[in-house]
Every structure is written in structure tokens, then in C-alpha cells.
Amino acid sequence: MRIIIFGPPGAGKGTQAKLISEEYGIPHLSTGEIFRSAIKNGTPLGKEVKSILDAGDLVPDEKVVGLVEEELKDERYGDGYILDGFPRTVPQAEAFDDILDKKGKTLDAFLQLEVPQHELVDRILTRGEGRSDDTPEKIKNRLAVYRQETEPVLNYYKKQDVVKHIDGVGSIEEIFGRIKKTLNNI
Ligand code: AMP
């Protein structure tokens, strides 16, 4: 199964993606985690993207697309995967479609986690992950970037008839229960 999990910062994408990965035995590919780990390890990629992540801005499309394309060549992604944090712009979504086309594959589901705006900032501040981009100012920027650059990705996938709306309010288990119900029906 090839799945995208989508939603604003603070919606719980990472948490749910991990659960989906365990339940369905498919790898979890998080572009944000790749960047954070590169920064932690002081790699050339980490040095290149550190200030971008710190500001809550987006890494350039070519960079992210190249990275995902390379990563997906690994055979462990052969039976499917859950993408978290990608695609985050319409050009990234178009590039991802090209990657799938070249492999003769299709997307099974685009899970849209719906969480009211007012809950997002609170959730990020209370999740206490200690991320350098989890300060009120940076969260504000990440939400603005989301609305401007990332929300249009939803309309892009609506045209493909793969969008599944998931109510993202409730406990982790409740939300995961909704996701399972949806995925077991496709
Ligand atoms: P996330 O863990 O998905 O919230 O991502 C953390 C940060 O990594 C974002 O605020 C961006 O700076 C960067 N990032 C992650 N995924 C992407 C992407 N697909 N395109 C551009 N930047 C990204």
C-alpha cells in the first residue's frame, strides 16, 4: 500500500504514520525526520538545511524531490510505504506523480488529517518534542507556509479521487481507529 498522510503542523501526522507503519508493515518515510537526523549528525545535507528548518521555511523542491526519489529506490519500499511531510508543494506532488508513473505504480490513499486551527498551536507547544522549530514564532511561520504552499496540495489530490478525510480530533487510539477503518475499506 502506498499512502500519503497529510495535514497541518501539529495534526499528528508523525504519530499516526508510525502506527500505520507498524500495523501494515510498510516503512515510514518522513522528510522532516531525514532532515532533522542529517542536522543532528552534522552531514553536508544537515548543514545545508539547518537554517531553513530553524526558520520553519521549506527546503527547495528540487532538493526534497531528489532525496525522496533516491530513497524510494531502496528495495524496502517495494511493497509500499507511508509518506509523511511529502509532498508539501504542488510541484512536489507533480514530481511524485512522475516518480510513480515511471515505476508503473499508483497511490492508494491520501489521508487528510483534519484538526481545527485553534488546536494546532496548543498541540505543538504541549507535545514537548524539543524541536528547534517548535517555538510560538516559528510555529506561526510554519502554519503560514502550510496555508500558502501546502494546502493547495489537497486540491491537487482531490482531482485524483484518492482523498480520505480523517477527523483528527480525539485520542491517538481513536484517530488511529478511524484511519484503520478507512484503509481497510480500500
Ligand atoms: P516536519 O517534520 O514534516 O514538520 O518537517 C520539518 C521541517 O522540515 C519543515 O518545516 C521544513 O523546513 C522541512 N521539510 C520537511 N519536509 C519537507 C518537504 N517535503 N518540503 C520542504 N521542506 C520540508
H/E order of the elements?
EHEHHHEHEHHHEH
Provide the β-strand percentage band: 5-15%
Radius of gyration: 16 Å
Largest sheet, spatial ordering of strands = 2-3-1-4-5
- Uncertain spans: none
CATH class category name: Alpha Beta
CATH fold assignment: Rossmann fold
Strand runs, count: 5
Work out the count of structural domains.
1
Helix content: 55-70%
The biggest beta sheet is recorded as: 5 strands, parallel
Quickly give the structural class: alpha/beta
Mean pLDDT: 96
Name every ligand kind in the structure: adenosine monophosphate
Specify the CATH homologous superfamily: P-loop containing nucleotide triphosphate hydrolases
CATH architecture: 3-Layer(aba) Sandwich
Question: Short summary of the structure?
Answer:
With 186 residues, the protein is of the alpha/beta class. The protein is 56% helix and 12% strand. The protein is globular, with a radius of gyration of 16 Å.
